[in-house]
Amino acid sequence: MTVEDIATQSFEGGAGALVPAPPSGARQVWRRLRGRPAALAGGAVIVLLVLVAVGAPLLAALEGQDTTSYHAGLVDSASGGVPLGHFGGVSGSHWLGVEPGTGRDLFARLAYGARVSLGVAFGASVLQVLIGVTLGLAAGLGNRWVDGLLSRITDIFVVMPALILAIALLAVVPGGFPRPVLLTLVLGLLAWGGFAKIVRAQVLAQKSLDYVAASRLAGSSPWRTARRELLPALVAPVLSYAAVTLPTNIVSEAGLSFLGIGVTPPTPSWGQMLSSATTWYQADSAYVLLPAALLFVTVLAFTVFAEGVRAALDPRAASRLRVGTRAGRRGGEVAAEPATAPAADGPAGSARTTGTPNGGGTA
Known about the structure:
Layout: H1 3-6, E1 9-12, E2 15-18, H2 26-34, H3 37-54, H4 56-63, E3 75-76, E4 82-83, H5 106-141, H6 144-159, H7 162-172, H8 179-190, H9 193-206, H10 210-217, H11 222-258, H12 270-277, H13 285-313, H14 318-322, H15 326-340, H16 346-354
Antiparallel strand pairs: 1-2, 3-4
Helix pairs in contact: 2-13, 3-5, 3-13, 4-5, 5-6, 5-8, 5-9, 5-11, 6-9, 7-8, 9-11, 10-11, 11-12, 11-13, 12-13
């Protein structure tokens, strides 16, 4: 029996039982992710928010309201439009109250606002990944001049104040252009530099490996080599960075809408609602707290989930996840067994007690 065979044994109550080898690929990532309850909780919140955004029309119809209908009878015109009733006019017809001044239903506007905020963030992230991966591959696989040119362009976009440039671009675009689409394009076209630098560094590291060199010596074109050999190795770092970038895009969209150059009424957006709520924080605090709380919970959920995904995709994090768990204790027993087991006759027994895979002495 070899050392590899011994490493798959688990001893419980003095009896040896063979256990299957650890799963690989997606199963291994899921197994590591399950060891992080905070990441799972963040993922559950994200799924709930996505369901709310996708099902916004159904939820609004279930409540019996929409995002544009004014209800003048639900606000007090004598006090400037403060909602009548407690907690911003919460009732059976308006589950989260109404908007000050207009009487529009807050639940419907928040649900539709999730569509805009999450849609812009997802769309911008996809665009950043596509541009960054393409230019990073081109820089890593190109010659010295191509690499130098693309690297300098990437550096410009990395150090460029993207938010200020986005404000300038959004201010000059005609108002008839759909603002959510414009926000997606602006954020996606200005913030891809981080992806390009990560991909270029990974490609330069992978180019010197034997399987990539063998593919190129076999006559594969650079892009065929990139598609078959390099892209699978880029999934983990790109996905990890995308998970971190997505909450940044949510905050950027909210900030631009808060400044009045993002999504404009009557289209609902959490940032745009916060912008209009600044004059009502004393008279109707619920109107400020609801979109602010949703933004906080969304960004927190994405940040925690992104950290969990990064750790799950990092093979070096596997041992840390098992520390102090039952799997970690069983792993310690497996590691200790070869050194304490009695020697067996023959080469296998010798390898079991005195050898290592590298022939370096006692384990």
